[in-house]
Amino acid sequence: MPELRKDPILGRWIIISQERSKRPTDFIVEESTSSGGFCPLCPGNEKTTPAEVFVYGREEGLPPNSAGWQVRVVPNKFPALVIEGELEKSGEGLYDRMNGIGAHEVIIESPDHEDRFAYLDPSRMHLVFRAYRNRIRDLARDRRFSYVMVFKNYGRAAGASLEHPHSQLVALPILPRMVISELDGALSYYRYKDRCIYCDIIRQELQQDIRVVCRNDLFIALTPFAPRTPFEMWIMPRRHSSSFTDQSDESLERLVEIFSESLRRLDACIAGVPYNFVLHTQPLRSQPLDHYHWHFEIVPKLTSIAGFEWGSGFYINPMPPEDTCRYLKEALI
Amino acid sequence: MPELRKDPILGRWIIISQERSKRPTDFIVEESTSSGGFCPLCPGNEKTTPAEVFVYGREEGLPPNSAGWQVRVVPNKFPALVIEGELEKSGEGLYDRMNGIGAHEVIIESPDHEDRFAYLDPSRMHLVFRAYRNRIRDLARDRRFSYVMVFKNYGRAAGASLEHPHSQLVALPILPRMVISELDGALSYYRYKDRCIYCDIIRQELQQDIRVVCRNDLFIALTPFAPRTPFEMWIMPRRHSSSFTDQSDESLERLVEIFSESLRRLDACIAGVPYNFVLHTQPLRSQPLDHYHWHFEIVPKLTSIAGFEWGSGFYINPMPPEDTCRYLKEALI
């Protein structure tokens, strides 16, 4: 059973998850993404994954865990947290721990091994976003969970261990520190100004128009004022909303336009660049929040995190977001 | 001139530092550590670095920036922050920025290109620690600076761009967020318990004796209860002290024993493993603090930071610190 442990000074939680009993030297082998060999996420290999929890597009009458699907969600075979059991909290002197209850799922974005998220057919990307929404809504009913983190690792350098297009979600029994900081920061601003800080950012960005990558009537993609890496992008709904799960199908269609344009522009600037994206949304079962605004953050893997960043939480970025925005806008797609 | 920018929601500062005008595709080339070629840090090449700010061991009568030194400190040729100028703060709508005033120095740990920090002669490692102490004391007199971050990147995967043994320091005009969180966390505990949390950790660790890697009468090395990565280690003074610069020469001698034993044990477990270490000490010109305790954190580069970690500030660690501690203690050195 995995275990959650809290750093007593910073309040940072970590997950101790021993997939297999590793020896120290096992860590030096860089895991490469499976290429050419057997792919457990490809159609026909459905039986090699844990049983699916959700699927789009399988023809009626066909049994679960058979081929013929469009988007498929399965539990992670090597989960960081496990779904069975009661949540148990305990102390050890001044330390705190919790057993590792949670969910860890894989959203398989396409049956086609060669597909890439940026170039998915719009109707398929729409299904992926609807699958995110569906899974978050479903997991919210489990009262052991406080938050669902949806994210994608694309490329080996960004942490992907499988090549087949997929994203992941982790349902957590506690609010992650980063989410708490974001909620707290946004709340302080709201208390001071009586306005959502993200809404104010969008207003200022549209007016300045030096960091807006693309937009439609419902969404905006921008390079944030203080990015951690070159080409970091945020995608936000233009109308205030604190929860991704409140989005309608129509709204998610408009999100697809902006998301795929942004990623294609990124790919046109730096072909094949590895990246992570993370959905930031409100905690599960929360009322709509006036001070918080859901969004995606896309972080390309271009600079390495070294001692300075570890120690300070301070990032050194070699290119201003105004420049990366210009490159992104000029890119031919 | 580099620029500091603040994320308006999280309060996280980043440095925009354009060393050269890069184009997007310049980022894909992984910089490798210079190997075999010209080394600007080797003796005889002193003129290729900016003029030294501090040196140990050069024979009397020899001019500055000549060979014959033991430990040498020079400004970084490609600094993240620059030393000249007045600190200027400005706003841009709801955003905050500051010009990039600071110091960025390189501590060259040995004239021998092949030396490695873990295997430095004790008298030489002692000089390195004394150089850290000396530089922090000196930079503290510059009232533009609030903090000096001392760190080492060892190995390319940990961010080192030069092979020659060296560490770095950055003097900052603001307190980094991580330092603030650590000070705040330690202060909350102190207010509640009237004791330093680090002193309590040391007491509990000595009593439990399952995470203590090594110790002498003045220092202790342990694998922390909630480590971010396998083989993370903290080195702490056993007697309460909030500032590294208050350490005597004798105390630093005893630090050398524990530091080099810890790193050699790490190297015996995973030969050549890349790592970062960071000195955590109190802000410049602060009075001694009852609630804070200086220490070093050593973080091996073994796991990759992927989307989940970016989004949550939550680390997944595949090996418990009790296991890594056992491996470290059993290692033959």
Averaged pLDDT of chain A: 92
Can you tell me the overall shape of chain A? Answer: globular
- What is the count of helical runs of chain A? 6
Oligomer description: homodimer
| Element pattern of chain A in H and E | EEEEEEEHEEHHEEEHEEHEH
The CATH superfamily of the largest domain in chain A is known as: HIT-like
- Largest chain interface and its two residue counts? A-B, 90 and 90 residues
- Characterize the largest beta sheet of chain A: strand count, sense, and whether it forms a barrel: 10 strands, antiparallel
Q: Would you give the CATH topology of the largest domain in chain A?
A: HIT family, subunit A
Question: What's the CATH class of the largest domain in chain A, please?
Answer: Alpha Beta
Task: Describe the protein's architecture and organization.
Two copies of one chain form a homodimer. Chain A is an alpha+beta fold and 333 residues long. The first copy, chain A, folds into two domains: 143 residues, HIT family, subunit A; 149 residues, HIT family, subunit A (2-Layer Sandwich). Chain A is built from six helices and 15 strands. In chain A, a hairpin with a 3-residue loop joins strand 10 and strand 11. In chain A, helix 1 packs across helix 4. The interface between A and B is large, with 90 and 90 residues.
